[in-house]
Amino acid sequence: GFRLPLYPLKGYSITVPIHDTNSASAPHISITDLSQKIVYARLGDHLRVAGRVELVGHDLRIEPKAITELIKATHTLFPESGNLNDAQQLSPWAGLRPATPTGVPIVGRSPIANVYLNVGHGALGWTLACGSASLLRNVICGETPAIDMTGFAFR
């Protein structure tokens, strides 16, 4: 009975097997390269490299140029991290992330009783997930959220 102002942001990732899990060849904490808009996160013996944003509707095709850019950026920062020459081992992926036009997520009550919203985080979905869930929990439980929720309300 209501529409949300959301559109899909297409993003890409590769997952690089790390040669030596005890080495310093890959980061042990998540790193964001703001200049390239790429995030590097270690997942056990793999390095997840994610980046790019495209406005292409619901197209999930994996563009080779996007994967090549992620590979080049990874090779520049972490040249010893893993085998960047074997495309099959890199598990290329593309996915859609729902975003609002302003980039501000919608968190809180919907126009329908007992339906709550936590959507529209776009490229920052995982980054903001726990904080948004905590705020939404406060709203659902009738508690005062830690921050002013006015800007996150459904309009």
Describe what this molecule looks like in 3D.
This protein has 155 residues and is of the alpha+beta class. The protein contains two helices and seven strands; from the N terminus they run ββββαβββα. The protein starts with 6 loop residues before the first strand and ends in a 15-residue tail after the last helix. It has a five-stranded antiparallel β-sheet, with helices on one face.
Largest sheet: 5 strands, antiparallel
Strand order of the largest sheet: 2-3-4-1-5
- Beta-strand proportion: 25-35%
Radius of gyration, whole Å: 18 Å
Q: Return residue spans where pLDDT drops below 50 for at least 5 consecutive residues.
A: none
Number of continuous helical runs: 2
The SSE order reads EEEEHEEEH
Mean pLDDT: 89
Count of extended strands: 7
Outline type:
elongated
Task: Give the terminus-to-terminus CA distance.
Answer: 14 Å
Alpha-beta classification: alpha+beta
Estimate percent helicity.
Answer: 10-25%
Layout of SSEs?
Blueprint: E1 7-17, E2 31-33, E3 38-43, E4 46-54, H1 64-77, E5 93-99, E6 106-109, E7 116-119, H2 125-140
Antiparallel strand pairs: 1-4, 1-5, 2-3, 3-4, 6-7
